Amino acid sequence: MSVIASSNPNQNARSGIAAWPPLLRILTLATIIAVAFGLYLGLFYAGTDIDQGQVQRIFYVHLAAFTGAFIAFCGTVIGGVQYLRTRNVQWDSIALAGAEVGLALSVLNLVTGMIWARPIWNTWWTWDPRLTSAAIMCLTYAAYLMLRTGIENAEQRRRFASIYGILAITTVILTLVITRIRPDTIHPVVIGPSVQNPNAEGAFEFSERMGMTIGINSTIWSTLVPVTLMWHRVRLQNLAERVNALKAEILNK
Amino acid sequence: MAEKSALIETRALVKTYDLMIVLRKLDFQVERGEFVALLGPNGSGKSTLLRLLSGLSKPTSGAIFIGGWELPREAAAVRAQIGMVSHRALLYENLTARENLQFFAQLYNLREIDERIRILLEQVGLSKRGDSLVRTFSRGMQQRLSIARALLHDPAVLLMDEPYTGLDQDAAQVLDGLLTQAYADGRTIVMTTHDLERAARLASRAMILSRGNIRYDAPASALDGRQLSERYTEITSLATAR
Amino acid sequence: MNTPFIQAVLAILRKDLRTELRSRELISSMGLFSLLSILIFSFALELDRVARQEAISGVLWVTVVFASILGLNRSLAMERDQGNLDAMLLAPINRAAIFLGKLIGNYLFALAVGLLLLPVMTVLFNMPLFQPWLILILFLGTLGFSTVGTLLATMTVQTRARESLLPIVMLPIALPVLLASVHASTNILTNAPIDDWIAWPQILVVVDVIYLILCFLLFEFVIED
Prior knowledge:
By secondary structure, chain B is α/β, with parallel strands linked by helices. Chain B has eight helices and ten strands. In chain B, 37% of the residues lie in helices and 26% in strands. Chain C contains nine helices and no strands. The interface between B and C is medium-sized, with 30 and 30 residues.
């Protein structure tokens, strides 16, 4: 085997492609450390919430996951617009990575929300506008992935996916603003200058330490986490494209 | 547009579908008034070439000129000069023959269309069925109406993608007549077909496409149907052997 | 060089209306579906007097949206089946004219179903649905989802899953329109003071305009090859 490998000059080049680029290694390591640090802050550094107790700590991941999903979905929009303009396949890979990473993070957001809601609202799920629109947001990106699998022609698939990825951001925006336009939500309004909703159940006052933990966690999850995950996904996509290219090379001979 | 230049010209025309190379650097010219039969096995790129010439599809690289205009950049100018017939009818089944033609006449911004439609329906032998729904038409009648639609705006170029598919003997003969007429009228015709004998009989030039390359290109008068068929078998079996 | 924009739009619209007047395929299937839908809703939800006030606008809008999905699928399948989309693309017309022509047709059909449902539901549920404000909301709401629907249906009829994919991709995108329409309608039907709900029609107008511009721009990419 080793004889064959050494006799093939392409072998090294190919294994070189399969290896992680140095920057990605650093980034991956940094992300793991940063997420662990964020968790440490959330679990030990921040004080325990007086009303809600320990379960409130899940909120640090809950909000952070949403910010990460938001960034990833923005990546889908940018990837889509750029793909339609340049027809460079790389942009579509970024869009796809954004949708998948965003979907994973928004599912994490939903699940952590449900775990929090069980003791606080006394139910796993309630048909609150914010919850409903967050769930529909997840389904929109599931539909995005389904649309992709439904199209055989790769060029058409990329084009349609780009268009849908651009339109899909409306559900993300809706989820963001719905607590403003539907004041009957019981979901606490966390971000932005707003009068705390009197209907909100489970709203909480922040101590300085809690505020810092929120800030650091959200920063990590909205920068390092989506970027690293998307990079890995794009790389995977590139490798898949390469396999296709090699297959096509054989067929085109 | 200068008189000397070819009506249709491609330069290093390449089309790939998702890494599959369908057309490899095609260079050819078609002069005004030629009738080109485009031959080749399934998957040789014939239909793709016609879609490119019609502007329905964009080339991956290379250039196409029709009447001196470049595709796809000047597609708007080219469209008015092209009539296309495909193996699909491209007609609305719930409209009558006349309404179909009226609709497309509006899209081509044609004036005084009633007389033109009357003449065309007569030419394709559908005068009596002009007010019947296309749904009730046989395949052959639909195909004839399809040709009337393609001729509606008096295009210089007729592109025909396997127009004989699904036609019976009689309908095919009527189509022969229409094509001969269009050729006699000085239109430039590019037609894909699998019918070598018919190609040799009708066309002025035969081109054989195999695996995205032009393997044979000669005046059809040089060969009769049998010889053409021999060349065809030779070329295509060569391609499969590789 | 191109055919005038308006002429192309009108030609496509006239063609769709004429086809429809002849076959009545869309209106009959959409109308029948709508009637069935509201009857089944009234069974399933066991709508009493109080529940009716709250739920009826939801029933109305869900019915109109599903009926319009039915119509959108048929309307675009007609362009695909015989390759007619290609025939239109061969013509020297602006691509956006195809979008606008198809959109206006689809909009009129969806609107017709909605307007048909108002008197029917007024009678069946004994509620005054024929109100100017509600009709305005109907105009705005159906415009919103006909816009995204026309774009997305042009896309989905070209895919393998075809008809079944449209509701899945369209409903989430139409959600903002649906949400605003339902809330405006509920408020109108419960005679809430206008200041409480006037924001909804305003949001609806904004969303409609955004979707119109976005879909108008994106349509070109749906039909090219």
